[in-house]
Design goal:
Blueprint lengths: L2 E5 L5 H13 L3 E5 L8 H11 L6 E3 L7 E9 L2 E2 L1 H7 L8 E8 L6 H11 L6 E5 L6 H24 L24
Helix pairs in contact: 1-5
Length: 187
C-alpha cells in the first residue's frame, strides 16, 4: 500500500518532524503551500486566519497522486490545527484515508481542541495524533516517539493492504472447451 505524508509548516519545525517520520517509514513527503501566509506579512495573515477561523487557499506540492493512505501534519496555533491543514482536512471526502496525524505545538496543554478538530473532519475514528512540542522535534528523546509512531503506522497500513480489492480472476476453462479469442483481442 502506498502512503504519503502531507504536511504544512510555516517555520520548518513540522517539516523536520515529517522528514524524520519519512526516514522511519519510507513514505514520501508532500508539502501544503499557502500563498496567503508567504512573504513578509505572511505570519500576520496566518495569525489572523487562526484567530478568525478562516481557511485560506492551499496547494499540495508534489501532488498526492496515487497514494492510497495519508499521514497529515501541521502545527497547532491557539490550540487548534493550523488553517492550511484544516483546509486540507475539509476536503477529506476527496482524499485517500487519513491513517496518521502529526502535530507540533509551542506549549504543552490539553489536546482537546486538536482532537475535536480531527473528529470534526475525519469522524469518530480519527487516528490518534503524534503531538510534539516544537523544542522537542530536534531532541534525541523524540526519536523514540517518532519510531514508535512509525511502527503503529506500519501496523495500521498492513491490514489495509490485505483488504484491498484484488483484480478479478478469470475462471479456468472447462475441460474439453478451448477459450475463444476474437481478432480484436477481446475474450
Amino acid at each position: 500500500m502506498t502512503a504519503r505524508i502531507v504536511v504544512y509548516s510555516l517555520t520548518g519545525v513540522t517539516r523536520r518532524l515529517a522528514q524524520r517520520l519519512s526516514g522511519e517509514t519510507g513514505m514520501p513527503v508532500s508539502e501544503i503551500r499557502c500563498p496567503a501566509h508567504a512573504g513578509p506579512l505572511g505570519l500576520l495573515r496566518a495569525v489572523r486566519d487562526a484567530i478568525l477561523g478562516r481557511v485560506p487557499e492551499i496547494e499540495v506540492v508534489p501532488p498526492i497522486g496515487a497514494a492510497e493512505a495519508l499521514v497529515v501534519g501541521g502545527p497547532a496555533w491557539f490550540g487548534r490545527l493550523a488553517p492550511p491543514l484544516r483546509k486540507l482536512l475539509s476536503q477529506a471526502r476527496r482524499l485517500p484515508p487519513v491513517v496518521g496525524v502529526i502535530v507540533t505545538r509551542a506549549h504543552a496543554g490539553s489536546g482537546y481542541r486538536i482532537e475535536r478538530d480531527l473528529a470534526s473532519f475525519l469522524g469518530a475514528h480519527a487516528p490518534g495524533p503524534l503531538v510534539l512540542l516544537s523544542h522537542e522535534v530536534g531532541q534525541p528523546e523524540a526519536r523514540g516517539r517518532v519510531r514508535d509512531y512509525a511502527d503503529s503506522l506500519r501496523e495500521r497500513l498492513t491490514p489495509r493492504a490485505a483488504n484491498l480489492p484484488r483484480p478479478p480472476v478469470s475462471p479456468a476453462p472447462r475441460r474439453g472447451r478451448v477459450p475463444v479469442t476474437r481478432r480484436d483481442g477481446s475474450g
